[in-house]
Structures are given as C-alpha cells and as structure tokens.
Amino acid sequence: MATATELQADILTEGAEVLGIRLTEAQERQFVRYYAELVRWNERVNLTAITEWEAVQTRHFLDSLSAAQALTTELLQSASFIDVGSGGGFPGIPMTLAFPGMRGTLMDSTAKKTAFLTRACEALELQDILVRTDRAETLAHHDDYREKFDIAFARAVAEVAALAELTLPFVRVGGTVIMHKKADIAAELERGQGAIETLGGSVREVLPVKLAGLQDRALVVLKKLRPTPERYPRRPGMPSKRPIA
Ligand code: SAM
Description:
By secondary structure, the chain is α/β, with parallel strands linked by helices. It is 39% helix and 20% strand.
C-alpha cells in the first residue's frame, strides 16, 4: 500500500476543476495529510466508514467541496461559517483547505470527534479554525454564536426539518444554510417546509451535484430572511424527536 506521502490526488484535483476550484500542489498535500490523520484516528474514533483513498477523494472531499456550487466568489474568499455536526470535519475542513480565506467554526456534540478535529487542524496548521464541543441546540443560544455566521453547513446530521432548527439560528439575516443531502430529497424537503419558514428561512434552491460519482447527491440551499424566534432551537433532542410541523 502507498504511504500517505506517495498518494496522488488526481481524482480530487480533476473533480475540483469541474467545480471551478484550482488546487495548488501545497493544497493537494494538505488533503493527503488530512486523509492520513483521518484514517489513523478512525482506528480509535468512529469518523468514517469510507477509508479507501479513491473513495475518500470523491465521497468526502469532493462531496464537501460541492458546496462551492452554491456560493459566490466573494463568500468563498472571506465568509464566516459554522459546520454543524462536523464529525470527521466534513464539509468544513475541505472547504477551509480549498478556500483559506474562509473563517470556520467546526462544532460537534461528541468530544472524541472534536478531539480529532482539534488535532487535525493543528496538523494542517489551520490556525484560524475554531472547534467547539456542544449541542447545536445549546450553542445557538449563546450570544457569540447566534445569528453570527454568513453560512451554516451540515452534512449527514438529521432530516431537513430538524436540521433547519439546528442551523438557521446560527446564521445572520441574509445568510445561507447549505445542507449536503441525497438527490432524492423532495419528500423530506416537503416535510421541512413548515420548519424552515417558522425559523425565518426559505428554500433558495436545490442544486444537483454535477460530478462523476456524486450524481446521487444534492445541496439544499436556504436563505435566511428574518431573525429566528428566540425560543428556537428547542432543548437538546427536540428538533429530531418532534420536528416543527
Ligand atoms: N458531517 C460529518 C460528515 O458528513 O461526515 C459527520 C456526520 S455524522 C453522521 C453526524 C454528526 O453530527 C455526529 O458526529 C454527531 O455527533 C453530530 N451531531 C448530531 N446531532 C448533533 C447536535 N444536535 N449538535 C451537535 N452535533 C450533533
């Protein structure tokens, strides 16, 4: 098996180009380094079921970077974001590696996962990234986090209705929520409409991911139109247990 330093990132760089992202050799090396940390920690902490280099490039790195399809150049250069339920760092770390001007906060409720995120950010020398261990339902009521971000990302965390409650409170009015989802999203989105409106958002668009190997993926993009009512998010667990109708 090739050592991490010998790995070629062709699938990543070619896919990124299709997304309009030109990765430098230094950035490619950072992705390889990230992969090495991910699979090393994955032996102890359950971060990913996908560990093969080819598959990680497509299903994790490019799937994460597909968010660029929904964002303007200006936002990609300097926006603040929070990655809710970041787990092994998806999509927040790939977005930061590709767009170093973005100011990211990675949050997850599981301390073992945030320990990994902290270590990975150190190894990748991502000094400006913040890592927080907390429930989204709690953190979103803190003044430093409520309605403070240009963008909230969330991938593989919950259904749209619950996820709207876990993400929209973090975003400033005028900001964007990007949910990485399966392409077959119509019924789930329909169930989430009431929650999105109640929380001050609206569906801007659903963007299919146009990349080889990711045709089953889509981005649900929300716009925040009004402040989120103070009572949301409700207490931990409620957004998924009893989604807003
Ligand atoms: N976003 C990553 C990815 O796409 O690989 C991780 C997905 S993992 C299936 C879901 C993650 O969300 C877990 O790490 C879990 O601890 C976290 N999570 C679930 N509910 C959460 C909440 N209410 N607040 C913070 N983190 C949460």
